[in-house]
Amino acid sequence: MNFKKHLRDGLIDNNPVLIQLLGMCSTLAISTSLFNGIGMGVSVTVILICSNVVISLLRKFIPAKIRIAGYIVVIAGFVTVVDLLLQAYLPALSASLGVFIPLIVVNCIILARAEAFASKHSVAASALDGLTQGIGYTAVLIVISVVRELLGNGTFGGGILGPDGAGIRIIPEGYPALLIILPFGGFITLGLLIALIQRLSRRSAEKAETEEAA
Amino acid sequence: MDKESMFSISTSPHIRSREDTRSIMLDVIIALIPALAVAAYMFGFRAILMTAVSVCACVFFEWGWRRLMKKSNTVGDLSAVVTGMLLAYCLPPTMPVWAVVIGDLFAIVLVKQLFGGIGKNFVNPALAARAFMASWPVAITTWEQPFSYKGFFSLSSADIITSATPLASMKSGALPETSTLLQVFIGQTPGSLGEVSAFALLLGGIYLVVRRVITPRIPLSFMLTVAALSLLFPGDCGRIEWTLWQLCSGGLMLGAIFMATDYATSPVNPRAQTVYGIGCGLLTVFIRRFGSYAEGVSFSILIMNTAVWLLDRALPSPRFGVTAEMRRSARREARAAKRGTASEEVEAK
Amino acid sequence: MSNAKKTGPVKLAVTLVIICAAVSLVLGLVNHITEDSIEASRAARTADAMAEVFEAEYYEPVEDFRPDGTVKALYRAYSGGVLRGWIAETSPSGFGGVIDMVVGADGEGTVTGVSIVSMSETSGLGANARKESFRSQFVGKSGPLALRKKGGEIDALTGATVTSTAVTSGVNDALRVIGEYIGREANAEEEPRTSPDAVSSATD
Question: Model's pTM, two decimal places?
Answer without folding.
Answer: 0.80
